[in-house]
Amino acid sequence: MIRPGVIILREGTDTSQGKPQLVSNINACQAVADTIRTTLGPCGMDKLVFDGRKVTISNDGATIMKLLDIAHPAAKTLVDISMSQDDEVGDGTTSVVLLASEILKEMKPFVEEGVHPQVLSKYIRLSNELLLKKIEELSIPIASSANGNGQLQQDMLIKCASTALNSKLLSGHQDLFSPMVVKAVQYLHECDALEDISNLISIKKIPGGDVRKSFMLQGGIAFKKTFSYAGFEQMSKKFTDPKILILNVELELKSERENAEVRISSPEEYQSIVDAEWDIIYEKLSNCVKVGANIVLSKLPIGDLATQYFADRGLFCAGRVDDKDMRMICKATGAMIQTTTSELEENVLGTCGTFEEKQVGDERFNVFLDCPRKLTTTIVLRGGSEQFIAESERSIHDSLQIVKRALQSQKIVAGGGAIEMELSKFLKEKALDIKGKGQFVLSSFAKALEIVPRQLADNAGFDSTDVLSLLRTKHNAVDGGSLWYGVDIINGGICNTYDLGVWEPSNNKSNSVSAASEAACVILSIDETVRNPKSQDPGAATGMLPGSGAPGGKPMSGMMQNAMDVAQGGGGRTGNLGPGVSYMKGRGG
Ligand SMILES: Nc1ncnc2c1ncn2[C@@H]1O[C@H](COP(=O)(O)OP(=O)(O)OP(=O)(O)O)[C@@H](O)[C@H]1O
Ligand SMILES: [Mg+2]
Fold first, then answer.
1. What are phi and psi of 321, to 5 degrees?
2. DSSP 3-59
3. What pLDDT digit, counting tens, does each position of 558-588 carry?
4. How many CA atoms lie within 13 A of 43 on its CB side?
């Protein structure tokens, strides 16, 4: 009897299905997690990713995952969860990828033994629900400024910001950056504008100089001097209480004859066209001056005629200002963007305490200080190299988001693996209440949670088995007083991370657990991959499908090729049954 095992699909189409497909997906996810495993925690290492053009040095899980250019279709899910964690919480991307892959690793034996993936998913979701409740129960409220505990709240937030910075390049400069970050975010919180954090806090990078020369302008904005034309040198570059006009208009002498065909019969007519062009621009410029503006900014170019005109009348102008900077200036100074210069009124002008063009490092900056609406903050980062500053910016982004989350949830948990150990203990106990396969799934999930303290210890060069057994003993102690014991990064062994001030917002942890569980369920629910080749390029897909082993396809980075090799451990068979028919079948599919 012929056993077909053939799926009739277009030539070049590959499918892989069944248990081996699941196992191969799990292997791929593990391989991806292996690449970022060593970056976790204060002693985590950084990764240098070179994409052929640009070098990026980073410790941030989301950034590394984004740059890895992961080709495996299932492993891409991990990239997506790290991205969503980055958008949603900002920090904790490494932890979430590690946790997801560890859950999958724990589930692999069950898959191999033939437990149906839906059963696994069901119990993973149950574990997730139980854990979210437990995190809520365990979390500790942060002091509220409403009860006159403003200073206390600030201290607690500084600890959260510091925990996020601990693992980053800036860890040695927490004393400078944590209070900065907290002050900026707290202000937004008071003004009820937390959600708009990415529009209201801007980070400017100036290479060169010491990192400790970084500073913050609260209620101020700074942006790099834009391209300037002749006449710029004669402008006044310092104002007190200036009136600011913001335009989305081009202030340049336009040659209209280049845009239209004009038939003329005498030189006078030609002159009249040229005069009209000059009249148009002069009218625009005089409108700006008439309304009483001292500073004119435009998203579009401001040419040399306009620059000279404004300089002669004691105004300052800058064209081609970045969109985000423009929006921030509007928010801070109360100015309204104008799309025309006719009929300008005084109420569209904004104002600020002082304006100055200043030298910062090698760059000239336009700085607006003491803006009436103190919502906006600019953090100016300094540092030796471009890569350093880029990584500093990512770290500041992480800690800004963490402070935001802490203010939103008003609750924190202790990090350093303490919360994970406590959750693991809780889930192990809960598992005993469940009969059947669920018990094993819950216990395995509980074991997977231990990956965080284990990896923190490993990365710090400690014996993780010792540390973990000490932690288990502490957390299982009957007195219940050792709830917050986690990895002691400084001295080795274990310590109370709550007392040490390693704090994380509780909703950060809930998010990680949910995202990791969801990712695990998604990967477990895929039992077949079908890859259609592009019509023009029938060989394109075959090289990349796990198990196909065929050449071709997009070249992969070495790191990812390794990931794919590991993934291919699941095995499968491929072949060609003449034109139009190809098959690929997993061993158990
Ligand atoms: N001083 C400390 N002692 C022990 N653990 C710490 C300390 N500071 C931070 N941690 C722990 O380090 C982990 C965070 O590490 P890291 O910042 O590298 O990864 P992440 O936050 O998961 O991802 P990413 O920051 O890349 O988005 C958390 O579990 C946190 O509790
Ligand atoms: Mg972090």
1. -80, 140
2. -------STT-EEEESHHHHHHHHHHHHHHHHHHGGG-STTPPPEEEE-SS-EEEE-
3. 444 444 444 444 433 343 333 333 333 333 3
4. 17
Per residue in 373-423, pLDDT (tens digit) is 877 888 988 888 888 888 889 899 889 989 998 888 888 899 999 999 999
Question: Which residue's CA is the nearest one to ligand 1's atom 5?
Answer: 416
For residue 426, the CA-to-ligand 1 centroid distance in Å is: 22
- CB-count exposure of residue 434 (10 Å: 0-12, 13-18, 19+): middle
Using alpha carbons only, what angle is made at residue 400 by residues 394 and 406, rounded to the nearest 5 degrees?
135
Phi, psi for residue 81 in degrees, rounded to 5: -70, -35
> Which of 167, 397, 499, 512 should be mutated for ligand 1, with most atoms under 8 A from CB?
167
Which atom belonging to ligand 1 lies closest to the Cα atom of 90? 27
Q: By the 8 A CB rule, do 329 and 383 touch?
A: no
Ligand 1 atom closest to the Cα of residue 487 is: 4
- Helix runs in 237-322, H state only: 267-290, 304-312
Residue type for position 246: I
Partnered with residue 297 across adjacent β-strands are 246, 318
The full set of domains in the chain, from first to last, is 19-140+413-524 (1.10.560.10), 143-219+378-409 (3.30.260.10), 221-373 (3.50.7.10), 528-585 (no CATH)
Our answer on whether the CB atom of 14 is closer than 6 Å to any ligand 1 atom is no
